[in-house]
Design goal:
Blueprint lengths: L6 E6 L2 E9 L12 H14 L5 E6 L11 H5 L15 H15 L1 H4 L4 E5 L2 E3 L1 H8 L2 E5 L3 E3 L13 H6 L1 H10 L2 E3 H7 L4 E3 L4 H13 L3 H17 L2 H17 L1 H13 L1 H10 L6 H16 L1
Parallel strand pairs: 2-3, 3-4, 4-6, 5-7, 6-9
Antiparallel strand pairs: 1-2, 7-8
Helix pairs in contact: 1-3, 3-11, 11-12, 12-13, 12-14
């Protein structure tokens, strides 16, 4: 059995055709570290190499599925990271190389010949929604939440799955607002396959997984390839390339640097509260002016 630092995977002891991949950082709301994407890919590779496993359920330990990237420390400190470069000018290809690797790791869920099901309770937000939407199927608790709040500032979903899973009109609504939706709405909109009361979530997910697990592995793989090929023909890979480049820009343009400087001065929580409140976000020359003020205050 593989050993990971951010997650756990094993065959369900009562249903050996089902593997359960558990994101396992409950003290940090299963937030994504630099190690987690690669460990997700390695776990999926392990499950695909196990002949008895037919389907993989992805879930989160503790209060929710995944709260996104673990950004508090990096956002509040003046530290160099490929995706948060303090030096000027920033190197977009260093950022792109890192984020594209993370995106490809998440996409191992989508490329897996064996079907993947995201079981979402609590919240799957920001980068956590990328993980959920790279899975083939999505089962949510009625009161669970999913969305990508950083589209308001400092982020662009690199997997670009919102449009392919939801359609352009709804995807634009969520990308323009940064709003989250609950499980009931996700099911009504066709984003989630099913929404159930939280107490029924595990049973509903398991019932779906068991139904799938009875199908021969070769048939599952062929049907998945057919559907995935449609998405590829629509330009999924090219869209992800653009989204990943844009994600880096959102963190290094005037608005992104303002958000980072505000977090460094007042804390990441305060920056997120501004972002999510609907309050206008400084942009352009206004953002540059506030950046200068925040940097001067830091140096005083």
């Amino acid at each position: 059995m593989p050993d990971f630092s951010t997650l756990h995977i094993a065959a369900d002891p009562e249903h050996p055709r089902i593997a359960r991949l558990l994101l396992n950082r409950p003290d940090r709301f299963n937030a994504i570290t630099d190690d987690m994407p690669g460990e997700i890919r390695a776990a999926i590779e392990w499950a695909n190499a196990e002949p008895d496993i037919h389907v993989i359920v992805v879930e989160g330990a503790g209060k929710g599925f995944c709260g996104g990237y673990d950004l508090v420390a990096t956002a509040e400190q003046h530290i160099e990271h490929p995706c948060q470069q303090e030096s000027y000018p920033w190197d977009p290809m260093v950022d792109y190389t890192t984020m594209k690797r993370f995106t490809e790791d998440f996409m191992s869920l989508w490329r897996s010949p064996k079907p993947t099901i995201a079981k979402v309770h609590g919240a799957a937000v920001a980068g956590g929604s990328d993980i959920a939407l790279c899975c083939d199927l999505l089962v949510m608790a009625d009161d669970a939440r999913i969305g990508y709040m950083p589209t308001r500032v400092w982020g662009c979903p690199t997997t670009a799955m919102w449009t392919y899973r939801l359609g352009p009109t709804r995807a634009k609504q969520l990308m323009f607002t940064g709003d989250v939706i609950d499980g009931r709405t996700a099911a009504e909109w066709g984003l989630a396959n099913q929404s159930v009361p939280a107490v029924e979530l595990d049973a509903a997910t398991l019932a779906l997984a068991q139904r799938i697990a009875g199908v021969p592995r070769s048939h599952l793989a062929m049907h998945k390839l057919v559907v995935n090929q449609v998405m590829l023909s629509m330009g999924l890979e090219q869209t992800q390339m653009m989204a990943t480049v844009f994600d880096g820009i959102t963190r290094h343009n005037p608005e992104g640097v303002w958000f980072r400087r505000y977090a460094q001065e007042y804390g990441f929580k305060a920056a997120v509260q501004w972002r999510d409140s609907g309050r206008p976000i400084p942009e352009g020359d206004d953002a540059r002016s506030q950046i200068r003020d925040l940097e001067a205050r830091k140096g005083a």
